[in-house]
Write a structure and sequence with these properties.
Length: 407
């Protein structure tokens, strides 16, 4: 007998038929003798629908009210699944985040979990009851409803698994595991049997939305065994593991991630003096805008150009700040470009191999794709390119690094 936390995503609970199918799956696990906590997302499309309603009223809804609104989606699915489980003769009980007491900070729409009171869940489990918990939501110390950011149900599941010291946290979704890249973009992508936390964290941070970044951070920190599986078909899925498997030959590259959600800003002709980067980027970070890739070029007239990327939603605000700085510093101009994408190769195997980046650059050159920016770390290389070439770039790299599935 083991204690398992299972999370079912939006598509997996997207209709009554799907909820009934999830109930069958859960019932089978209970009948095998496992103890279960089930975490659910809202039905697919529901969170977007709710956000759309708010935006019909105002472009800048109050974050506290947004959380009251968007947390309703998960309340629907937990009640429906509990009913479906009871119909199958099982004991089940649904809980909102506040009822479990998933306590978060007060950062509405991007709250962080601080504490989970596991007493209620533990006593349900001991009594043979399936606890069905709303993902994505919590409550702050004052009792306000909070949410954890898009895709946050993954994090709810991992945090509960950590709090209960569960044997495994299983993330059921609409693909049968973590692939070498998004299988909806590259049909030859291959499922990975396992991937390290470190690589998964890079993949998630660099744009692979199969797991919310924070859920991977949490699982790594608390050593929660994490598996991504399909709710539509049986299979082993992908195990996200702590250790690199020493018995296996490490592939150079485990996966390719991409992100279309960034924009590029350039300030040109800034007098090149010490402290200029901090003068340019300081006000951006003071405005709580996260800067990602940065490059600085010096030209022979003693001026410099600084180019950097931010989340696309922050571009307008960043440009306003940058224009002000440009006036103060006597810079020539400020340019913006929202139509960029970041493509990254990720792999722990890179540590012990030179030449990975040049293979990447050759592949992009062969497809006539211009590289605008480059950034590297021990286990990844990222390039910024024109957004319209992102699929071409990812497919080319997938082939160049030998990741394509056999025909
Ligand atoms: P859920 O609603 O179950 O949380 P998500 O849409 O959040 O599902 O995540 C699953 C999706 O992630 C898949 O449908 C797939 O298109 C996308 N995805 C992106 N990168 C990858 C990858 N490397 N491996 C698997 N899926 C990926
Ligand atoms: N329903 C939320 C979202 O769409 C949380 C989740 O599905 O994980 O972002
Ligand atoms: Mg998700």
């Amino acid at each position: 007998m083991s204690l398992i936390v299972q999370k079912y995503g939006g598509t997996s609970v997207g209709s009554i038929e799907r909820i009934e199918a999830v109930a069958d799956k859960v019932a089978a696990f209970v009948r095998q003798g496992h103890q279960l906590v089930v975490v659910l997302s809202a039905m697919s499309g529901e969170t977007n629908r709710l956000i759309g309603l708010a935006n019909q009223i105002t472009e800048t809804p109050e974050p506290r009210e947004m959380d009251v609104l968007v947390s309703t989606g998960e309340q629907v699915t937990i009640a429906l699944l509990s009913m479906a489980l009871m119909k199958r003769g099982l004991q089940a009980r649904s809980y909102t985040g506040g009822q479990v007491r998933i306590v978060t900070d007060s950062a509405h729409m991007k709250a962080r979990i601080e504490d989970i009171n596991s007493d209620t869940l533990m006593s349900d489990i001991s009594a043979g009851t399936v606890a069905v918990v709303a993902g994505f939501q919590g409550v702050d110390v004052e009792g306000n409803i909070t949410t954890l950011g898009r895709g946050g149900s993954d994090t709810t599941a991992v945090a509960i698994a950590a709090a209960l010291k569960a044997d495994e946290c299983q993330i059921y979704t609409d693909v049968d595991g973590v692939y070498t890249t998004d299988p909806r973009v590259v049909s030859k992508a291959q499922r990975l049997d396992r991937i390290t936390f470190e690589e998964m964290l890079e993949m998630a941070s660099l744009g692979s939305k199969v797991l919310q970044i924070r859920s991977v951070e949490f699982a790594g920190k608390y050593g929660v065994p994490l598996r991504v599986l399909s709710s539509f078909e049986d299979g082993p899925g992908t195990l996200i593991s702590l250790e690199e498997d020493d018995n296996m030959e490490k592939p150079l590259i485990s996966g390719i991630a991409f992100n279309r959600d960034e924009a590029k800003l350039t300030i040109r002709g800034v007098p090149d003096t010490p402290g200029v980067a901090s003068r340019v980027l300081g006000p951006i970070s003071e405005a709580n805008i996260e800067v990602d890739v940065i490059i600085q070029n010096v030209s022979d007239d003693n001026t410099t150009d600084i180019t950097f990327t931010v989340a696309r939603g922050d571009m307008k605000k960043a440009a306003e700040i940058l224009k002000k700085t440009a006036e103060e510093l006597g810079a020539r101009e400020v340019l913006t470009d929202p139509k960029i994408a970041k493509v990254s190769i990720v792999g722990v195997g890179m540590r012990s191999h030179a030449g990975v980046a040049s293979t990447m650059f050759q592949s992009l050159a062969a497809d006539n794709i211009n590289i605008q920016m480059i950034t590297t770390s021990e286990i990844k290389v990222s390039v910024v390119i024109d957004e319209k070439y992102v699929e071409l770039a990812v497919r080319g790299l997938h082939t160049a690094f030998g990741l394509d599935a056999a025909e």
